[in-house]
Amino acid sequence: MLLYENKKQKLLNALKFTGSPFKKFVSTSEIEEELGIVQSREEFLESIVNEIDKNENFILPVIGNVGSGKTHLYWALKHRLYYYNIIYISLETVYKKFYYNLYSEFIENMGVEPLRNITKQLCNEWGASERRHGFFHLADIEKIRKVALEKCAPKFDNINALKDAIYAITTHQIDPYKKREAESWLIGELMDVRDLSRLNLTNDLRKTKNAFTMLKILIENSKLKSVLFIDDVEKITSNRKQIYETTEEAEEIEDIEEVFDPRWLYGSKKTPEKSSAEKILDKILELQKIKGLRIIITLKSIEYFEEIKKEIKKEIEKENKDFIPLLKEPLFLLDFAESDIYQFYKRNLEFFFASINYNDYFKDFSESYYPLNEDILKYIFNKANGNPRQIIKLLIKIFNEIILSNEKLEDILSNYQ
Predict the structure, then answer these.
(1) SS3 of 299, please?
(2) Which of 10, 55, 204, 329 is the most buried if burial means most Cβ atoms within 10 Å?
(3) pLDDT in tens, 333-369
(4) Are 110 and 85 in contact (CB under 8 A)?
(5) CA–CA separation, 255 vs 206, rounded Å?
(6) Nearest-angstrom CA–CA distance, 125 and 218
(7) Is 308 helix (H, G, I), strand (E, B) or coil?
(8) Is 129 exposed, middle or buried (CB count within 10 Å of its CB: 0-12, 13-18, 19+)?
(9) Are residues 65 and 334 in contact, defined by beta-carbon separation less than 8 angstroms?
(10) DSSP state of 266
């Protein structure tokens, strides 16, 4: 008995020395979540995976309360769908320069080597493998560009943006003297007039149409299938830095995306928030022109989904498209079941003690919830109403008390019974 008490004290000492296993309660897209989902959500995750595997293009709404783990779901999908390129964006950070920021996230997620492979593959399809005879065996770059434009033009709305993309891709693969500059353009680096002139290009990827065109080219020609995960769509309506629609300088406005609209002075009934939301929604719908792009959007309420559904339906009907296959019925991310908190707690402790190489935990406490117990975990579950974020907050609070307080463990835990 004394030996077991010593083991308990040793574990508490390890915690006091290394810190808490529970250090953050908000999941982010930057910090990878190593832990998988809890048991009650396995079927939910599988239903999303099935939708992704069965459909080439769709918008799938996922509805969950604040703190239910929507961002954590992104990491679960990323780990499960390792054969997909899954891009996470938050509208709080990309609502300005939407396509440029989305493109930057796409490239960062995909990596430069696959980009090089795609440009090589495209140039070969356009005729770069047919070499001219001569000392250097160089391909006829102008002939390749002409072939590329003829093949691609029917699939794209903006020919100028397409020409820029084709020039950059062919320069990257065929012109050894400008390869590095062309790659800089392709990965989204900002360029001044002199840089663009050297590459014979009109705009860099800050230009909305250029960014969209390159996204379409890369996604449709990538060996990895693509999923776009747009988190917390509602946030755009409450953001005070609005995106205003403007009048006829439409092309320039699309690139600035922060232009004052004089209609607000003349009694327009739409609020800036509504305009912001509609503009972002238009962009999400436009992304459906990219073959093979699956879009998941997360929402907090069924009410907001119904609003979005109405707006999407209006836009779809304008273009005489089929509405039903595009927007899927929403899936609901429920809070934890009681059994989930025990699994979640144990997984966190096991991952934590493995990370600090405290192997005695697995020998001595593999069947135990120590330093907590089943009653405490049940109390936490009920207090948090099953909400994952609130559960983590309470676990952080208790473990901080255990680590920082000089009270006995029994006395600390007595406050949570």
Answers:
(1) strand
(2) 204
(3) 999 999 999 999 999 999 999 989 999 899 889 889 9
(4) yes
(5) 7
(6) 14
(7) helix
(8) exposed
(9) no
(10) G
Region label for 267, one of left (φ > 0), alpha (ψ between -120 and 50) or beta (otherwise)? left
pLDDT band at 86 (very low <50, low <70, confident <90, very high): very high
State the pLDDT confidence band at 281, using cuts at 50, 70 and 90. confident
Alpha carbon of residue 191 to chain centroid: 26
Query: CA 105, CA 228: separation in Å to the nearest integer?
Result: 10
Query: By the 8 A CB rule, do 210 and 164 touch?
Result: yes
| Contact (Cβ atoms closer than 8 angstroms) between residue 80 and residue 317 | no
Best CA proximity match to 108, nearest among 214, 188, 34, 219: 188
| pLDDT above 50 for 254 | no
134-164 pLDDT, tens digit per residue, is 444 456 889 999 999 999 999 998 999 999 9
The number of beta carbons lying within 10 Å of the beta carbon of residue 229 is: 24
Whole-model pTM: value is: 0.83
Task: Give the H/E segment covering residue 5.
Answer: helix 2-18
Mean pLDDT of 61-85: 89
Structure tokens at 11: 């574990």
DSSP character at residue 267: T
Structure tokens at 407: 């009270």
CB 279 within 8 A of CB 245: yes
Under a CB-based contact definition with an 8 Å cutoff, are residues 228 and 89 in contact?
yes
* Residue showing tokens 């250029």: 210
- Nearest alpha-carbon partner for 206 in 126, 103, 135, 124: 103
The pLDDT tens digits of the residues spanning 162-198 come to 999 999 999 999 999 999 999 999 999 999 999 999 9
Six token digits for residue 208? 């909305």
